[in-house]
Structures are given as structure tokens and as C-alpha cells.
Amino acid sequence: MDSLDRSIAKALLSIQAVFLRPEQPFIWASGIKSPIYCDNRLTLSDVKVRREVEEGLASVVKSHYPDCEVLMGTSTAGIAHAAITAEILGLPMGYVRSGAKDHGRANQIEGRLEKGQKVVVIEDLISTGGSVIEVVNVLRDAGAEVLGIASIFTYGMKKGLDRLNEANVKNVSLSNLDVLLEVAAETGYISAGDKERIRKFRDNPSDESWISA
């Protein structure tokens, strides 16, 4: 029987939530060329995969953050996952906007959050870690005790790992790029050479030598 990280990797590939395309790189907003594209929103549209993902996130919260009192989703991709996982666990949830509203109560945190509450942030994807750490900081500024992050997938980029470490925040992902590459190579989706090229990109995204490798 597959481990959870392999099972999730297979699921993401099966619904094309993750594309591996080293021969035709994707272009990030920053202009960096990438051999991988991840859209975990697609997990919401597949009932079987969605159930596996949400039960996996619930398991992570129970196992790694047993003192959790409330889940907070990142806006917008983490909101639905936080809501479904909270329903499974019987926990309250809310979400953090990318910025405060310019009307009404000018909330950035939506949902009830009391000072001192123990929070787990639900995120769909971690690459460089910048956006999820902003969410963590907003919650901390509001007086929450952030226990950590539960995410669906992480690239394992050095920049992201360094940022999480500097922010002193723990992340537990259901699967990661190394596991996904192994599964993709085993199934013939990519070659062994492509696997190494994609790892080379992950280890230094600004170095485009992987393209001609």
C-alpha cells in the first residue's frame, strides 16, 4: 500500500493538478522559467481526490498539531480546504485576506479569532513561502498562537525552507516535489534525466542551465 505522500502525488498527477513540462517551460510572473506548474484548486473538482486530500490534512492536524483550536485558510486557495478539513475535525475556521478590506470593519482576518487561540494555517501550495508567512504574521499580530502550517504540496525550495525557518514556523505537507518526481518517473511521465533537470531547477530557480541539460 502506498504511503500518503506517494498516494497524494499520484492523485495530483492523475487529475493534472501538477504538470511537469521541462521541454516547454512555464513562465512565472517574475519571468523565471519553470518546468513545473501546480494548480491544487483542481483537487476540489474531483470527489475522490478531494476526500483523500481533506482527510490527509485532517490527519496532519490531529497528528502534528493536536492542540489546534481553529483552522485559518490562506486566501484564496486555502479557504475551501480549511472549511472542509474543519468540518471533518469539528473545529471552527476562518481565513486571512491578502490585505485588509477597504470598507465595513476593514477586516483582514475573517471569522472569529480570540487572542491566545492555537491556530493551524491551511495552505494548498508552498514554493518560496512568502505568502503563507505573511498570513502567519497577520495571525500572530492579532494575538494568535500559530502552531504551524498544514499544506497539500511543497516544492522544497531552499528559499521557502529558509523563510519558514526564519519565521520559526513548522510546515507539514501531504506530498512534495521529490516524491512526485519519483512517482512520475516510475510511471513514465518523465524520464530519469528530466527528474534531475527538475530537481536542478528547484534547487536554483534563477539558474536556467537545466533547460539545456
Describe this structure in words.
- The chain has 213 residues and is of the alpha/beta class.
- Helix content is 39%, strand content 22%.
- The protein is built from seven helices and ten strands.
- Strands 7-6-5-8-9-10 form a six-stranded mixed β-sheet, with helices on both faces. A two-stranded antiparallel sheet has the order 1-4.
- It is globular.
- The two termini are 35 Å apart.
- The relative contact order is 0.16.
- The mean pLDDT is 94.
The topology string of helices and strands comes to HEEEEHEHEEEHEHEHH
Structural class: alpha/beta
Euclidean distance between termini CA atoms? 35 Å
Mean model confidence by pLDDT = 94
Tell me, briefly, the overall form: globular
- Please compute the radius of gyration using only Cα atoms: 18 Å
> How many β-strands, per DSSP?
10
Helix content: 25-40%
Q: Looking across the biggest beta sheet, what order are the strands in?
A: 7-6-5-8-9-10
Total helical elements: 7
Largest sheet: 6 strands, mixed
Q: Strand fraction band?
A: 15-25%
Runs with pLDDT <50, length 5+?
none
